[in-house]
Amino acid sequence: MDSSSLTCKKLTVIAVLAVLIQVFGLGFFVLGFFPVKPALSGFSGVESFYPPGADSAEFQNTTNLSDSQLKYLYQELSLVPPLFDRLILLVIDGLPAEFVLGKDGEPPPKSFKEAMPYTRSLLTKGRAIGYHAKAAPPTVTMPRLKAMVSGAVGGFLDVAFNFNTQALLDDNIIVQFLKVGWKIVMHGDDTWLKLFPGKFSRHDGVSSFFVKDTVQVDQNVSRHLVDELSCADWSLLILHYLGLDHVGHLGGRNSVLMAPKLREMDEVIKTIDLNSLPTNNNDQGRTLLLVVSDHGMTGNGNHGGSSYEETDSLALFIGPTNFGSTSGTTNKANQVDLASTLALLFGVPIPKNNVGMLMPETFISLTVDQQLRLLELNSWQLLRLLEAQLPGLVCENFLCDNFRDDGSERTRGYSSLEETFCCLYMKAADLHRSWKSGEEKRSASGDNFHNILVAYHDFLRTASEWLSHRATDKPVGQLIFGVAAMLVSCLILLSLLFLLGKQVFSEQNQQFSSANDDLSWWHLDEIFILVVIVIVVISMGSSSLVEEEQYIWYFMTSSRYLLSLRKVMQHIATRTEKNTSATLGPKTNNYIQICSIFVILISGRFLRGWHQGGVNWTNLPDISKWLEQAGSTYIKLFQLVSVFILINISLVSLLWSRRSKKNFMTMVSLMHLFPGMLVLHYITKYQDVAFGTGSYDATLMAQIIYAVLGFCSTTIVVAVPWCIPFQNRTQVQRKAWGLCFRDSAYVIGLSYIYYWSLLQLLLQQPINSMPVLFLFLQVLASIWHSSGSNQHLRQWVEVATLYYMGMAGHFGLGNTNTLATIDVAGAFIGVLNHSTILSGILMFIITYASPMLYLLSMVMYTSVKDTSGFIVSQEGNIGSLLKRTLGFPCLVPLGLNSIFLIAYTIVLLLMRNHLFVWSVFSPKFLYVCATTVCVCLGVSVVASTMFYICLVLAYREKLQTRTD
After folding, report:
1. What is the pLDDT of residues 676-722, one digit of tens each?
2. Residue 53 phi, psi (nearest 5)
3. Which of 18, 507, 592, 632 could form an SS bridge with 788, CB 3.0 to 4.6 Å?
4. 799, 777, 789: which is closest to 652 by C-alpha?
5. CB neighbours of residue 495 within 10 Å
6. What phi and psi values does residue 516 have, to the nearest 5 degrees?
7. 304: Cβ contacts below 8 Å, ≥ 6 apart
8. Collapsing DSSP states into helix, strand and coil, what is residue 426?
9. Looking at the DSSP assignment, which residues form a beta bridge with residue 206?
10. Which of 843, 918, 909, 14 has the alpha carbon at shortest distance from 483?
């Protein structure tokens, strides 16, 4: 396509088509790369008690057996009597194992240790066995519950399904318990009700997402506790407490509410334990109390990523008598090990898709024959799963006489994968067979028994690790198609950008050829913008740089404006050397540029030091930590100062609107002042109680602020183009139309960024109030820098710089490329009852505060570009104006995002077998996808606003022409 034929209509249609292709390709890739992990259909039965490959004719038909008959059949086949008769599963959401068991052999922090004295006494007496049960990412509730009950590792996109839980159809211990006639009661997190609809005899569910509630959400569970403990009609009681997780989201690990909440949980454990101990009046059987957590939490109380703090979940077995194990609190396991352990403890088949291994310390009280039998059953189950996923795994085909099974040989590929598994299993099976035949002396203290244990554990550990980390088969054709579609979209957008730049460059050459001979040369700042793209793309291939991406954006944005400062100073020096006297206009522009650059650099430095972002350096001191140590009084003071300064800057900025009517601007000023005062009132009166039990007034106030912000912004957008005055007819035909366009864009653009900043001051964590103000200052300074710069500087450079600053500000607010830094608490401000859609929208608004702020600033940015030369006397000039003003602000963000999107998609494809693919690269890809949504939404708002302004002004000009 020739650049001269690139009309506004063609540009719009092709750009929209490119975006649709991009979204289509991205969807194809995501569905192909993150499929639901394949699972064996059906449920385990009597075949679980026979070795793989056994003749199915030997299996007893169980279809006509009653629940009790099936239960006794399982016990007869397992050869091991159940250790317990009833199970109480106590889930304390978000409880790090460190709080109960300590870390690295050290006891828990003093405040936490003193908060759970009864639980600590159980560990000391040997009544309890504690495990650091490592949870697999993503560390959010729904996939972690699925892992505990099924023993299977879910797909990574379970983090998205966590907000819309579907029924669990795979084999799991809940179904296995129901098959043997258990009655199950559940109180707590309603995620259980969604996973197992219709499976509970009694239930009382509470919402897991309404994080403002830290009290009632647990009281709703505890109110049933005493009554349920006195009942004999259930075999499994599930209690899922959410309050501790909510405390973490609101105040972090060190919240003042954390120790009281731990004391409350300790009292719950004490109540359950004392009421479930066997007595003369209690013949309900042996009861196992299993205290677990679905995940841990980071220092600020969030979770979702793969750090130690987030994956360090708890598994605490509390029995009526001593377990016989003295290891106490140093045991380690995987969360998926719970399913196989519970199945073997209660004599039911292990779920089919379980990838975990039993926790051996819980079976110490059994005889040596029984312990080996359980290891055998676990090995048979994992071998069946291996055979299903490795068709070449036929152990009869391998000769293992000379097999060397040390880990170093296997790591170096001494044998094939199938041979490794078969020989490890056959070694354990042969040793066990020899033991059972009586050829070996049966003694738990002998070397022979120890050798069998080691052999079984070696096979179980190797199989479990491989099954847990095995990458699912991905449809290569679908992935390639998705990448190709995104690549085509990227090329289309870049081609449009190139053609538009070529057209603008040609017009500038014709208009300014005598005054600007250097328009054909590439300048340093333009080269720098392209270098940034290359550096960011290269950094995507490094897991460390993905984790610490913020440093790249901080350095690049600071360097960009240092180059601008150097350019301004060179211009001033050149003029001085030539002894030329500048007019007032150029001098003012230079002063504006220098001042705006210093505002940007200083604000950027504060933003960089506010949070130690990323993963590796979060423990280092920063401004936010200093303020938190200083206390909430200082934080609130900073909030109030931020809102006050924000209001005043917006009112002063409105005065710079050149040609608006005084009465009209007074009304706009009031519409800026009123919501600002409401936010001030909210912070002063309601913020401290916003997450308390009596927060109805705070919620109502927040809803009023939402409504006022929505009404004011809509009113200003709709009314401003109608109220900006034209001047006389001569000017209308020459310059006035363009000036009205600029004034309308200025007022609307300023309102956009002001209202967006007010919304962030309401939703962001209180510690982020000053960073929000710094972002607002940076936006205004960047726009004023553009207004004072050379009008013939290539516009795409300025727009790209704004995009880069939006990314730097994203990390300046404390965001990272891990899911743990997503602010869940703010997503419930103004939400009276849980709404997944509404809370998801608020969560998106909080997370992408900075990128969206800079995208919305494009409306104001267009107002500082010279449009006075456009005349609307001929048809098509509106399109020319829109193309010149909207082309770069829309195409540059879309083009840059498409480059980063396709580059990272290819990186993710290449890293699909990388060790950190699920912990580092996949979370980053989710952020890249969300950034794409953010850019598309921001560009849509900017384009719609500018189209509306042009249509209204064109209509008004037409009416005025008819009147005249």
Report:
1. 999 998 988 887 765 554 467 888 888 999 999 999 999 999 998 88
2. 90, 0
3. 592
4. 777
5. 14
6. -130, 95
7. 137, 138, 139, 140, 159, 310, 818, 819, 820, 822, 923
8. helix
9. 189
10. 909
